[in-house]
Amino acid sequence: MRTALSVEDVSYAYGSRTALDGVSFEVGAGRFCALLGPNGAGKSTLFALLTRLLVTRRGRIAVAGHDMARAPRAALSKIGVIFQQSTLDLDMSVARNMSYFAALHGLSGRDAERRIDAALDRLDMAERAGEKVRALNGGHRRRMEIARALVHEPEVLLLDEPTVGLDTAARLAITGHVHDLAEGGLTVFWATHLVDEIRPADDVVVLHRGRVLARETAGSLAGASSLTDAFMAITAAGAPPSVERAP
Ligand code: ADP
Questions:
Q1: pLDDT digits (tens, 9 = 90+) for 107-127
Q2: Is the pTM of this model over 0.90?
Q3: Which of 20, 21, 46, 152 could make an SS bond with 12 (beta carbons 3.0 to 4.6 A apart)?
Q4: Where do the domains of the chain lie, and which CATH numbers do they carry?
């Protein structure tokens, strides 16, 4: 399987505080890969490095074969990103938000329209195109943001805890839509601390205190127990000795 996202021995520190320590993993093209880790694991730091909000000289990141340090433009052009915080203009319509974003990527006219229609369609949002974003509920806003991240036809979709603050029905709809995108060939890298968003066939990278503790499919990680139990056992075993000895 072709590698869509490659992270090789990446480390990052905020001053003397190590946030990522020799992180390595690969995500195959068309795979849904969950980055699973508790708060403080380093998920947001890794996302910032993958989107070049932060840079590091320790390690190597490549997207669709493009090296993030040597060919950042080529690498970034292959990424679609959904950050935790929404970046939508609430007073513009869904369609205007989409065409504004398309223009930022140098897309306009028929080509932009075609891509916008296709992206909204993939998220079941086509009939909302004329509505102001302010009129949409939280789940539909998120779906629109995902559609927007597809307009420049990226190969890898990065989502940083995309269901935070949504109700159960909206969470289910979004995890379902994004799994469908992966089935359609898109590579998905989805940060979460919620195991119920992950399906047995998905790949999982378990990150804890800046280190990768496991990297396999969710089904094999869970084994005979549940993914929650497996995750708790792995992260407890990966804690420093002083914590392990605590009563
Ligand atoms: P997560 O997204 O998994 O909750 P983060 O990447 O936000 O993890 O944080 C990883 C570690 O880096 C934590 O120990 C956190 O306190 C620290 N950290 C994150 N951002 C900063 C910052 N701007 N300055 C100093 N430390 C930070």
A1: 999 999 999 999 999 999 999
A2: yes
A3: 20
A4: 1-78+155-247 (3.40.50.300), 88-153 (no CATH)
